[in-house]
């Protein structure tokens, strides 16, 4: 379905969000902008068709404007060696495939132009100052005057080529710590020539880039600037500098400012799930007093309600959402049609998007494994409707049931518990993971829409499946043609003397509030769940921090004259003394997410959790948890008793596979997915991917 054309009728559900917006002659039908995200499909010519379909899917879903991942303006600025760029006629020809697909889908698309500077994973990189990148290994060359002018001209050249390729606008990446931002901040600009020193000199590079780009493109071609409005690094910009830069940007021909928050090396989390929604909009709103061009707010805006609320306040003109459009390409259409409860809301986990991008893997989405795989993972209508039993309504079973039913199969879902979600429902109770409830809401609604028959409180047996008595249907219609076993996992109970002591409980019992928990607690296991449970135990009963408390915990300064707006963090006191223990020697939390692990590690540190590695568990008794300690080489270094009131076991999980053999032996077509398939290295990303793939594999 093609996206709607511009409508002047007010939208009954989100009137502000669906007001048209014009940026230098380019009229958008709504104020939802898909922010730039590097997907990994930008870099190789043979991925062009996949990338075109990825964007076209979002265009058909009604988004106002798409902004591509960053394309380098020169070899010295590539994000990765041989990465995506816009420098010659071949690039133009390739990009016509993308712009054509988006326009045919009824959408509009802007190309983001980037120079990575010291952030490039690229041996040919150049940068403003001398300071090496803390996030990438290659050394860079400090730019000479000649190189600076070459790069300025490269921006103009690439902008001209982007216009030729059919893009509707360009965005200049001036934030997140990339080259333009590196010039703007003393943090990375230690130059003593006319490109460094005072604000005017540091801003000269961006001013010249804007002037050059304006010169090279048509007067009616929109230029958007992604401007950093909070660097969150020491020696970042002050507010006066940011405001001055915005005014200069408007003066030299920028048509809209898309605001950007935080460098990649910032010590303040800016996009993970525990960041309060719309936490940084106030920075964008402040710019309203400085410029009259459209302002776009970004970061942790993930629902139409939040977006509408921002726009209603009247100081921001549009909202940028990148990950929410990965999670649900139809976000805009669903909101426009009053179907917001059907949106698959991004939960800010980063597990399949940014965590992939930072290790060079193709970007997708934990909730929507089809993101980036639109041409290969298809859920087309079936021509042969089958009767499918899905056993277990954790993430794996939910994804399988909904996807199979969307294809037209007759699906019955069996869940032993009284509600859907499995282990994911426990995750949603962790402070800072409240967004996970959105996923449960999404699946619950999809089960209704797709007419899946849901049997709650039904621990189904192999016999009931085989003889059809589990089914809501009768007679022959009750027989299942396919059985998806998504029975998941149960917490592992390790073999420790005294493990059945009354002070011991599983993570599920602890988090679900089934048991009283004392003030001193030992956590056995320091994996993802050990960290989550430690955060849960050290946080107040009402876990959702308000914005002010969150800023205080992470050191966001209210004083706008402080460079970068960073100050000393002042964590709220922990509510319990927690010890987190693991058998492995060395640091804890090494397997946590690439872009989120540091936030968890910093959180348990700020809450004073004592981390003990290299331990063996000797005994649990009334005294507490008895440990033998070892050094990194495995040599015993001593004994210790943790005198605690309770012990929470987070020692991994084991698969629930009791139905696999009886059903397989009986000759039933079974598909085993999620934790039932393999408990180790299980997460919701694999569970949902397997669920979706099994539904796609049905005839
Ligand atoms: P499960 O979630 O275990 O679901 C299986 C379901 O099957 C259960 O509801 C069970 O009742 C049902 N069942 C079993 N047998 C039967 C039967 N015979 N009949 C009917 N029903 C049956 N993952 C992430 O990716 N990111 C995170 O940040 C994250 N955080 C987490 C935090 C915590 C505290 C916890 C506990 C987990 C977290 N996880 C996270 C892990 C994630 O929740 C699991 O990987 C995921 O739930 C596994 O999905 P599943 O569907 O395979 O199994
Ligand atoms: P995990 O990450 O594999 O950690 C299991 C922990 O238990 C480890 O610390 C392990 O350390 C310990 N352990 C294993 N066997 C043990 C035994 N027999 N006795 C005592 N200790 C034992 O698994 P998890 O923490 O249960 O998490 C499950 C999955 O959920 C993870 O794979 C993760 O992907 C997902 N998850 C993700 C997040 C996230 O933020 N992305 C958060 C939570 C969960 P030692 O062996 O060294 O003792
Ligand atoms: Fe959002 Fe997680 Fe999907 Fe990324 S992987 S788009 S953060 S839900």
Quick summary:
With 699 residues, the chain is of the alpha/beta class. The chain contains 21 helices and 27 strands. An eight-stranded parallel β-barrel has the order 3-4-5-8-9-10-11-12, surrounded by six helices.
Write a concise keyword list for the protein shown above:
699 residues; alpha/beta; eight-stranded parallel barrel; five-stranded parallel sheet; 27 strands; binds flavin-adenine dinucleotide; binds NADP nicotinamide-adenine-dinucleotide phosphate; binds iron/sulfur cluster
Strand and helix layout:
Elements: E1 21-23, E2 26-28, E3 32-34, H1 48-60, E4 65-72, H2 89-104, E5 109-114, E6 126-127, E7 141-142, H3 145-164, E8 169-174, H4 179-184, H5 199-216, E9 223-230, H6 239-251, E10 256-261, H7 281-286, E11 295-297, H8 304-312, E12 318-320, H9 323-327, H10 331-336, H11 354-357, E13 387-391, H12 395-406, E14 410-414, H13 423-427, H14 436-449, E15 453-455, H15 462-466, E16 482-485, E17 489-491, E18 504-506, H16 507-511, E19 520-524, H17 528-538, H18 547-554, E20 577-581, H19 597-606, E21 610-612, E22 615-621, E23 624-630, E24 636-642, E25 646-649, E26 653-655, H20 660-665, E27 669-672, H21 684-697
Parallel strand pairs: 3-4, 3-12, 4-5, 5-8, 6-7, 8-9, 9-10, 10-11, 11-12, 13-14, 13-16, 14-15, 16-27, 18-25, 19-20, 19-25, 20-21
Antiparallel strand pairs: 1-2, 17-26, 22-23, 23-24
Helix pairs in contact: 1-2, 3-5, 5-6, 12-21, 17-19
This protein binds flavin-adenine dinucleotide (FAD), NADP nicotinamide-adenine-dinucleotide phosphate and iron/sulfur cluster (SF4).
Residues 323, 326-327, 346-353, 365-367 line the site of iron/sulfur cluster.
């Amino acid at each position: 379905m093609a996206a709607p054309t511009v409508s002047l009728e007010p939208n009954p559900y989100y009137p502000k969000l669906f007001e048209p917006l014009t940026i230098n002659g380019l009229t958008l039908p709504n104020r939802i902008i898909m922010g730039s995200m590097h997907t990994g499909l930008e870099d190789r010519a043979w991925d062009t068709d996949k990338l075109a379909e990825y964007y076209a899917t979002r265009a058909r879903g009604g988004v106002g404007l798409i902004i591509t991942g960053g394309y380098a303006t020169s070899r010295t600025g590539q994000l990765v060696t041989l990465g995506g760029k816009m420098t010659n006629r071949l690039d133009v020809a390739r990009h016509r495939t993308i712009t054509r697909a988006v326009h045919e889908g009824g959408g509009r698309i802007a190309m983001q132009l980037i120079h990575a500077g010291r952030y490039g994973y690229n041996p040919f990189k150049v940068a403003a100052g001398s300071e090496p990148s803390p996030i990438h290994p290659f050394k860079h060359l400090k730019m000479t005057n000649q190189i600076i002018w070459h790069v300025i001209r490269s921006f103009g050249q690439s902008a001209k080529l982007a216009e030729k390729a059919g893009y509707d606008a360009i965005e200049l990446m001036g934030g997140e710590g990339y080259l333009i931002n590196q010039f703007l901040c003393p943090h990375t600009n230690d130059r003593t020539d006319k490109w460094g020193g005072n604000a005017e000199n540091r801003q000269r590079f961006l001013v010249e880039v804007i002037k050059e780009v304006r010169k090279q493109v048509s007067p009616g071609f929109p230029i958007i600037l992604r401007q950093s409005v909070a660097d969150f690094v020491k020696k970042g910009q002050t507010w006066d500098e940011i405001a001055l830069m915005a005014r200069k940007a408007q003066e030299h021909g920028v048509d809209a400012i898309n605001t950007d928050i935080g460098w990649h090396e910032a010590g303040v989390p800016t996009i993970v799930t525990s960041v309060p929604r719309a936490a940084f909009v106030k920075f964008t709103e402040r710019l309203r007093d400085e410029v009259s061009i459209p302002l776009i707010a970004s970061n942790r805006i993930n629902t139409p309600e939040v977006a509408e609320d921002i726009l209603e306040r009247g100081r921001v003109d549009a909202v940028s959402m990148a990950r929410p459009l990965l999670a649900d390409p139809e976000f805009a259409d669903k909101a426009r049609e009053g179907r917001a409860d059907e949106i698959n809301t991004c939960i800010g986990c980063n597990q399949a998007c940014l965590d992939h991008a930072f290790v060079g893997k193709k970007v997708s989405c934990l909730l929507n494994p089809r993101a980036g795989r639109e041409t290969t993972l298809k859920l087309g209508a079936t021509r042969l409707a089958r009767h499918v039993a899905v056993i277990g309504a954790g993430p794996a079973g939910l994804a399988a049931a909904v996807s199979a039913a969307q294809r037209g199969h007759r699906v019955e879902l069996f869940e032993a518990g009284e509600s859907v979600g499995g282990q994911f429902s426990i995750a949603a109770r962790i402070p800072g993971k409240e967004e996970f409830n959105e996923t449960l809401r999404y699946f619950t609604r999809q089960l209704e829409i797709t007419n899946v028959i849901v049997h709650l409180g039904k621990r189904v047996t192999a016999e009931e499946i085989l003889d059809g008595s589990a089914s809501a249907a009768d007679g022959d219609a009750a027989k299942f043609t396919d059985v998806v076993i998504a029975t998941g996992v149960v917490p592992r109970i390790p073999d420790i003397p005294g493990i059945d002591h009354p002070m011991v409980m599983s993570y599920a019992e602890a988090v679900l509030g089934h048991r009283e928990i004392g003030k001193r607690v030992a956590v056995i296991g320091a994996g993802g769940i050990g960290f989550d449970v430690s955060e849960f135990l050290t946080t107040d009963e009402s876990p959702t921090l308000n914005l002010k408390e969150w800023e205080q915990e992470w050191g966001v300064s209210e004083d706008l004259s402080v460079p970068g707006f960073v100050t000393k963090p002042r964590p709220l006191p922990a509510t319990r003394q927690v010890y987190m223990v693991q058998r492995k020697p060395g640091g804890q939390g090494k397997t946590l997410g690439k872009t989120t692990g540091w936030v968890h590690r910093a959180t348990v540190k700020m809450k004073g959790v004592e981390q003990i590695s290299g331990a063996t568990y000797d005994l649990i008794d009334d005294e507490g948890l008895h440990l033998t300690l070892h050094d990194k080489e495995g040599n015993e270094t001593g004994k210790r008793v943790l005198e605690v009131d309770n012990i929470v076991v987070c020692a991994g999980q084991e698969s629930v596979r009791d139905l696999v053999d009886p059903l397989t032996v009986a000759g039933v077509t079974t598909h085993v997915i999620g934790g039932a398939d393999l408990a180790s290295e299980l997460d919701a990303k694999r569970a949902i991917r397997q669920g979706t793939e099994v539904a796609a594999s049905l005839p």
